Amino acid sequence: MYYYIKNIMTKNINNDEKFNNENLKKTITKKKSFFSFTNFFKKTKNLILHKIKNIFFKKKIDSSIYHNLKEILLLADVGIITTNYLIQNFKITIQKKNITDVAEAYNIFKKKLYTFLKFETQNFIQNVNDFKKIHVFLFVGVNGVGKTSTLVKLAYFYQKKGKKVLLVAGDTFRAAAIEQLKDWGKFYNFPVFSKNLGTDPSSVIFDSLKFALIKKFDMVFIDTAGRLHNKINLMHELKKIDRVVKKYKKYIIQETILVLDACIGQNSIQQTRFFNKTLTLSNIIMTKLDGTAKGGILIAIIYELKIPIYYICVGEKIHNLVEFNSKKFIDSLF
């Protein structure tokens, strides 16, 4: 059986490579930065905050409040199903408690949002902290969502915690995909497992997991080819990959992560439904939240699909991967 594993170091590289690496290093801060959630969701906040506060500046509560709230939530891509249920639930509470004070109504509305986002990632976090088995992260998603770069960010996060990580080039259809992962491996000193272009990705993944067991890696991060959720043949291939990973279930803890682009809004719901039907998703990582006003889609995904958001990507730098916190998310919008 043939294995190709290369731990690419930055030593003995030519001047051009040194120049490129130096430029890349300039994009990475020397010290990990921590920003408030307010900065992460600035565009969504700008859309929601002032409009919602204007609604509650009224002296009394009337039917226009519910109509205006609904309009704002839909603009933020909370979605019609979640928005209707939220507004109806809010309205019932206001009428049942006979609330007339707008400030009190504002706080009730905020608490309703907290309740909607109570679905947490506790089980996943507990699994990750259990290192008796190898943790295998299978990354899936459509083309262009930032799947590979997100995979590298999560691998880097755990590498800094002292974990022995392995990257697997499971996208064997594009030469650029394999080379991209090798380049990341070179820069961050990740071992990368890959085979020749055109190799059956299931074969690559099967062999990579055998290698990981032999070499006693803590975590394996598997990249897969981007695929549209409505391409049946490609989704069947993903099922095959999932079956191959499950052959090692005695020795691993598997997490199947869907990477979503926040900028596409409600289309995220449809994508998630298809991928979850095919694979049973463990959690979601949402990218590009720093560049969209459609952050409300997080509320819709968690409420409608009951799939936790594990991390959010809020920039291109290696440390711009932040653990999602539902309370901080709501607080950042109000």
Automatic annotation (TrEMBL):
Gene Ontology biological-process annotations: SRP-dependent cotranslational protein targeting to membrane
SUPFAM superfamilies: Domain of the SRP/SRP receptor G-proteins, P-loop containing nucleoside triphosphate hydrolases
Domain Signal recognition particle SRP54 helical bundle as annotated: residue spans: 36-117
Domain (AAA+ ATPase): residue spans on this chain: 133-313
Domain SRP54-type proteins GTP-binding: from-to ranges: 134-334
Main subcellular localisation: membrane
UniProt cross-references to Pfam families, sorted A to Z: SRP54, SRP54_N
Reactions catalysed according to its record: GTP + H2O = GDP + phosphate + H(+)
Subcellular localization, as worded in the UniProt entry: Cell membrane
Cellular component GO terms, alphabetical: cytoplasm; plasma membrane
Keyword Coiled coil on entry: no
Family annotation (SMART domains): AAA, SRP54, SRP54_N
Record membrane topology: Peripheral membrane protein
GO molecular function, one term: GTP binding
Key words of the record: Cell membrane, Cytoplasm, GTP-binding, Hydrolase, Membrane, Nucleotide-binding, Receptor
Keyword Cell inner membrane assigned: no
Family, similarity comment: Belongs to the GTP-binding SRP family.
PANTHER family in the cross-refs: SIGNAL RECOGNITION PARTICLE RECEPTOR SUBUNIT ALPHA (PTHR43134)
NCBIfam families attached to this UniProt entry: ftsY
Name of protein: Signal recognition particle receptor FtsY,partial
